[in-house]
Amino acid sequence: MSIKPTESELEILQILWQKGAGTVREVNEELSKIKQTEIGYTTTLKLMQLMHEKGLVERDASNRTHVYKALLNQQKTQKNLVNKLIDSAFNGSASQLVMQALSNHQTSPQELEAIKKYLEQLNQK
């Protein structure tokens, strides 16, 4: 059984993946920066408690301030989400996903170079 995090849970997981671990207050501050609007502390607290119950994060309660850490592997989670998106929105076509992504977002020259190198590696296999 694979756990499918919601959009809000993914935002929190992104923060925890980047930081390694964090308190509710730290995560709440980062969320507010990302969203560019004040997110209620109790909203973040409740969401992280639910994530703990679902097995998405672990909680170290040894100190007064609980510290949370992601239990889901970032790469596995991203892979599962991309596979689901390819299947559901692009009828199984990875190339359609890539072309849509490249046309929707500005891609830096460095990113394009990395994509070219990756495609060359795939062609050599």
Automatic annotation (TrEMBL):
It comes from the Bacteria. This is BlaI/MecI/CopY family transcriptional regulator. InterPro entries: BlaI_family, WH-like_DNA-bd_sf, WH_DNA-bd_sf. The lineage of its organism: Bacteria, Pseudomonadati, Bacteroidota, Sphingobacteriia, Sphingobacteriales. Pfam families: Penicillinase_R. One of its GO terms (molecular function) is DNA binding. Keywords: DNA-binding, Transcription, Transcription regulation. Gene3D superfamilies: Penicillinase repressor domain, Winged helix-like DNA-binding domain superfamily/Winged helix DNA-binding domain. It comes from Mucilaginibacter arboris. GO terms for biological process: negative regulation of DNA-templated transcription. The keyword Transcription applies.
